[in-house]
Amino acid sequence: MVSRNQCDWLVGLNVTRALTCKYNASLSCGRVQTPTLAMIAKREEDIRKFVPKSYYGIKAAVKKDSVFQLTWQMDKNGNTRSFDKEKVKAVVNKVNGGNFTITEVIKATKKQPAPALYDLTELQRDANKLFGFSAKQTLNIMQRLYENHKVLTYPRTDSRYLTSDIVDTIPERLAACAVGPYRKIAAMLARQKFSPKASFVNNSKVSDHHAIIPTEQFVQLDHMTNEERKIYDLVVKRFLSVLYPPFEYVQTTVVGEVEGERFTCKGKKIEKMGWKEVYDSSYEEDEDNGRTDQKDQSLPELNKGDVIPVLNVTMTEGKTTPPAYFNEASLLSAMENPVHYMQSHDKEDIKILGETGGLGTVATRADIIEKLFNSFLIEKRDKDIVITSKAKQLLELVPEDLKKPELTADWERKLMQIASGKLRRDAFMKEIKTYTNELIDEIKAGEGKFRHDNLTNHTCPECGKKMLLVKGKNSTMHVCQDRECGYRETISRTSNARCPKCHKRMEMVGKGENQKFICKCGYKEKLSNFTERRKKEGAGVSRKDVNRYLKNMQKEEAPVNNAFADAFAKLNLK
Length: 574
Prior knowledge:
The chain is of the alpha+beta class and 574 residues long. It has helices at 2-23, 33-49, 85-95, 120-131, 135-147, 170-176, 183-190, 226-242, 328-336, 347-356, 365-374, 389-397, 406-419, 425-444, 527-536, 543-557, 565-568; strands spanning 54-64, 66-72, 99-112, 247-258, 261-272, 296-297, 307-319, 378-381, 384-387, 455-459, 466-471, 475-480, 488-498, 505-509, 516-518, 524-526. It starts with a helix and ends in a 6-residue tail after the last helix.
């Protein structure tokens, strides 16, 4: 840990200073943040280069007691899509008016266990997908639930399992969270006995801290904010669900032929809801990564040899889609598993990154993403994360080595050698210092240029230079181009105030008495009018409340401290 932090500090600090001095602009880079930025840039490049292609399939409606749909399979591998339109048209004409002869009916009873308990990264992903919370926001909420309310366990964990010694405390934890919507389920589970050999217990998969679960502290839901309730609800339901039996269902797969062409359909019959009872049918499965066109449906009783008339046949058409832009949930996943963005595809490097958790840790990834926002290297378009012009230029100027996940794999390999006694720490640190000097020399010799393409006609009131227009995570600002001046002013800020017409969050613009709310739908309202309206509606918002909100927003936008500042504050590297 100490060696890794010192390496990050030496390389990150010196290379950042070299770039900043060379190009007279605030340019930040590091072992984790620069590869993360490169991954976002690579995703955008893939989207730009993507050329959609039309594909075709066939659906056939048949009826036996009830109508159900068949899907054409072009081969035994199960492919349901073809790029050959004429071929698909020919098959449609061939099977239209034919009979579906069932050649195989396969019934299999399947059990689906509950999803594993939450570690921090998985919780951040779900909170972003369900509620739009940023990774940093989720971590902050978790920290309050851990430190202030004391109702959830330590948040900065990378494990999704419990140790065997925790099993005996499960009844007390169930009793503590048996309130409100969890009372009935928790009380029922509390009467059961839990084995140390349960699927969610694995000592070997817990390092420093076990998965996030409720504590034995009695819960007072009315003392929580709306955001805290949402995160608490996720953790408690996941905890309750792993204590339940699996979800059981019978999967029926029917295979047959129409005029020699292969058609199939699938059906599902639920036997036992199991852990899904905890979610009251609200649990959403992940999207099918297999991109299959077959969906489970309610099927009548079907047997091998049945011959069923085809009612109608339809050719379906679609287009291949590009990869999606990153959001915070998918970016966290890419940082945790950056294999697809490695250039070497070295098996040993892939294995090392898998064992060490990818880029960053559960405790630092949120700060890294926030730092990229606060450095104006990435910005949001709705929920999508895109890189800025500043980031594109930075990736052209930064040494190539710092953009690769392989650098992390190389360091982790050598750190493991130090831990096993195969490599001396001082030799490794000497190598890092030499490497740092090489990076600095490469930057000095660089012939690239950095150009501010977001200059405005507004002049800085402190130094008189033209200011830059930049978009933060939740605001738009004017920032002085002179990094030594550092003056900045907020032009607009996304507020929590909802538009009375479309109910979307409004932007707050202006200063002092001229502050007003503006919505994308065109609605505008002065702050004073907004305050009076809210008072009349019975949810009065005083100027003091608004000012407090603005101060909190400013705190959120303040640059994130260097992740290693505290660790190295008292470190003597002489």
